Amino acid sequence: xxxxxxxxxxxxxxxxxxxxxxxxPGDTVKRGQVVCVVETQKGAxxxxxxxxxxxxxxxxxxxxxxxxxxxxAKILVKGEAPAARxxxxxxxxxxxxGVPEPEARPxxxxxxxxxxxxxxxxxxxxxxxxxxxxxxxxxGVDPTKASATxxxxxxxxxxxxxxxxxxxxxxxxxxPTVKDDAEARRSAMRDAIAAAMSLSNREIPxxxxxxAIDVAPALAWLEAHNSGLPTAGRVLFAVxxxxxxxxxxxxxxxxxxxxxxxxxxxxxxxxxGVAIALRGGGLVAPALRDADRLPIDAMMTxxxxxxxxxxxxxxxxxELSETSITVTNLGDLGVETVQGVIYPPQVALVGxxxxxxxxxxxxxxxxxxxxxxxxxxxxxxxxxxxxxxxxLARVADLLSRPETLWQD
Length: 408
Fold this sequence. Notes:
This protein is an alpha+beta fold. The chain folds into three domains: 1-112, CATH 2.40.50.100; 116-203, E3-binding domain (Dihydrolipoamide Transferase, Irregular); 207-406, Chloramphenicol Acetyltransferase, CATH 3.30.559. The protein has eight helices and 20 strands. Mean pLDDT is 82; it is low at 85-123.
């Protein structure tokens, strides 16, 4: 029997609040299947399981805080028999310190919901944003009675407010306002970011490199590619940058991985973290998985989906726990140069600034062209400047010859 534990969703995470189970005891589960939802400073996260098996017992209950590594469920692996259930419920193995011990472990379909939230009408998961969930609890509104207008049929904060307005007038419980709650969440996220970045600056010996790249050929190629396509189908220049980084990492894998316990562990795949600023404040960098295997059009689709789900609070645990390098792009905000801070335990961060028109000398000719500044922050415990320079040179070469971005 194996333990299904609270995953670490970043260096800034110490615990998570359990929200709901999407499976029940006796269910067969497959590696990569979403089995529950937890809430962190980054919002609600769909947690995947990393082993095949059968759910033996559910331990975590809604509303309970569980530390990273704390046991949430017991899973029977292939060949194991379930615990005896005739008359006496199976007693789970002792849990790690700090994990609450519930008096009973009802199934996901019959478990009592968190205080103030009405039970779901079916086993289908209710799509609701974290802010809307908390507001429904504060107002005593049954979220299943709200009309969903958000992406993927999710119930939004506005949907809950409308549902509260049309119900019979009653005294709402005295709880924090939406404004107070939002400020508390922003404060918690800032604290988490501060802890992670302080750790990075304290323990990681950064070195920085930068280079200007002539991207006029890439922009011309992109304009031709997007010509005649509907707005929703056009590729952003940021996708070409991500593609260039992914392909360059194939040749310089020393920048793709994690430094933990004094040892560098190279990533087997290229999961690029995309730094995304949240509308309510804060930052999250979920992974664009297998970026080096995605053709440009498929990468644009995957990036758009990642942006939408990040801002709707619908990320998966693998998108937060497996990022092997991060890319930040502040060009649309007018910044020319980015000097980033590495997100531990990663060992590198790539930054891109805005596109500018500048004089450029090449083969004895002087002309104006469009350029972008690319920077690299890397961990000196793992690589030296020569390796970082080779990586940046490869990124520049790929962006200056956009036809190579199509090559697998």
